[in-house]
Amino acid sequence: MRLNRHNYFFKKHATLNQSSFNYFKDTNMKRKIKGFHLDEENDWVAELECHHGQHVRHQPPFINRPWVISKSGRNSKLDHELNCLKCDLGEPKDDW
Ligand SMILES: [Zn+2]
């Protein structure tokens, strides 16, 4: 009886792990960068083709994106792809 309960728990746990694995596997919505703008806190936001915004901050030494500081750097990232978590979550389009 005790063993059965353990097996039940193990099975449930294994299923949970499998679904989290699938969740992460599907979190790969590649969206192209179509433009940039500054938000109200003066942080750069990449405008993705799906009309979702994604912060592309340059906060050394934690986040290093020196290219975001210059216009030519930003232009060089146009049409690059980012994973869009908002698409995965089915969030409505952003306004900018
Ligand atoms: Zn999106």
SSE succession: HEEEHEH
N-to-C span? 60 Å
Shape: globular
Give the overall average pLDDT. Answer: 83
Q: How large is the count of helical segments?
A: 3
- Cα-atom Rg, whole angstroms? 20 Å
The main sheet orders its strands as 3-2-1-4
SS strand fraction: 15-25%
Number of strands: 4
Question: What helical percentage do the residues reach?
Answer: 25-40%
Which parts are unreliable, with pLDDT below 50 for 5 consecutive residues or more?
Answer: 18-22
How would a textbook summarize the main sheet? 4 strands, antiparallel
Protein structure class: alpha+beta
Small molecules bound in the structure, each named once:
zinc ion
Question: Overview of this structure, please?
Answer:
Residues 18-22 have low confidence and may be disordered. Strand 1 and strand 2 form a beta hairpin. It is built from three helices and four strands; from the N terminus they run αβββαβα. The longest helix is centred in the first third of the chain and has 25 residues, at 2-26. It is globular. The chain is of the alpha+beta class. The protein has a domain at 30-88. Bound molecules: zinc ion (ZN). Residues 31, 48, 50, 52, 84, 86-87 line the site of zinc ion. Zinc ion is lined by residues 31, 48, 50, 52, 84, 86-87.
